[in-house]
Amino acid sequence: MARRGDRPPIGLTWIVTWPLSAAFAALVFLAAEEIHHPAREVAAPPPAAIGGPDWSARFPERIAAVDAALHKAPLSLPQPVEDERGSGPLRWTHRLYQINLPRAEQAQAEAAIEAVRGADPGLGVTAENTADGTDVRVGLDGLLVSTLRFRWVEAVTPKPPNPRVAVVIGPLGDDLRVARQVVAIEGPVALGVRPFRPFSREVAQLGRMFDRDVLVQLDGSDWQGKADGGQTGAVPGPDLDALLASVPQAVGVAWQQGAGGKGQKPDRRWLAEVERRQLLFVGERGKAAVLPAPALITEAPPDAVAAQFGAVLEKARSDGSAIAVGTPGDATLEALARVLAEWRAAEIDVVAPSALAHAVNLSAR
Questions:
Q1: Close Cβ partners of 237 (under 8 Å, ≥ 6 residues apart)
Q2: How is domain 58-153 classified at the CATH fold level?
Q3: Which stretches of the chain are DSSP H helices?
Q4: Is 119 helix (H, G, I), strand (E, B) or coil?
Q5: Contact 161, 176 (CB under 8 A)
Q6: Please, are residues 128 and 134 in contact by the beta-carbon 8 Å criterion?
Q7: Interatomic CA distance for residues 109 and 123, integer angstroms
């Protein structure tokens, strides 16, 4: 029997302390596990990817759908300024649209943007007023994909086009010196050249050298003679091939009634041939004429001639355009040089006759 105070055997001591050591070790292990692995009831779930597992793959096509919706809206979007955004696997194109609109259309623009909201459930639209407009930012799932930069401008009434006047001076062809006086006038004054005259070809070449319209100028005497015996009883007109050979590089024909009203007017078949050859016709033709009917400027003192040109100007202001045909007399040329300068100062456009015939393709003669 062991005495009091004697130490227990070593084996017994180990047997007695083992349960305590095992319990302590278990507590330490459980505490460590708790630190590394919190209890299930307080653990936060892992965050889910925005929009689903294939969100980044579908993001570009969602942007394209939103952009298509913007273009369907009645906004008349201009070409955007594009820049690439994002990094890594998530990259997209941001589009900046700069739009100038009258302030009166602001409500319609806001309604058009509002209608785009249904293009995607993740679409967000915010607006910020600036000093001269509004910036509308369009985002998908919080990422900016488009910016519409509206600049509100005051509506400006468009200025009506300037009245346009064309002037033809003729007949020329008997005196080359007179033709030189005409081309010396500043402005696109057209040359009316009488065919088969001593200097017809030279005057036509001079006109083309100075970039002026050249027209074959005829009058009622060119239709004098016996009728052709047809149902119309019309006098055949002069041969166009011969006319154009006498006045080379002519872009059309100018006709005026002869002195005293003698002779006949061009017949329909002859005018149809002029049209078939895509030549201009300056003369009285009725309502279907491509060019306005010309006003004849008669030779008179300079002030009286200027008054006639004034009447032509009033016609241009009322109708938009007018054509004047004047003779190459000294008074007419003096008055013409003066009124052309006045017209330019008054924002009257002096143009060549061919400029008034946009629907006609001039022949390259």
A1: 222, 223, 266, 267, 270
A2: Beta Polymerase; domain 2 (3.30.460)
A3: 10-36, 55-72, 106-115, 176-183, 200-209, 240-246, 268-276, 302-319, 330-345
A4: helix
A5: no
A6: yes
A7: 18
Paired with 314 in beta bridges are none
Question: What are 30's two structure tokens?
Answer: 């459980």
Maximum pairwise Cα distance, the chain: 173
Length, in residues, of the chain: 365
Name the residue ranges covered by the structural domains of the chain: 58-153, 164-225+233-356
**Sign of the torsion formed by the C-alpha atoms of 25, 27, 33 and 35:** negative
Topology of the domain covering 164-225+233-356: TIM Barrel (3.20.20)
pLDDT tens sequence for the chain (365 residues): 444 445 444 343 333 333 434 444 443 444 444 444 444 443 444 433 455 677 888 888 899 888 888 888 888 888 999 999 988 878 899 999 999 988 888 888 888 888 888 888 889 999 998 888 899 999 998 899 999 999 988 876 778 899 999 999 999 999 999 999 999 999 999 999 999 999 999 999 999 999 999 999 998 888 765 454 444 445 567 899 999 999 998 999 998 775 555 557 788 889 889 989 999 999 877 555 678 889 999 999 989 999 999 999 999 999 999 999 999 999 999 999 999 999 989 989 999 999 998 544 444 34
Classify the C-alpha dihedral 197-198-199-201 as positive or negative. positive
Q: What is the pTM of this model?
A: 0.57
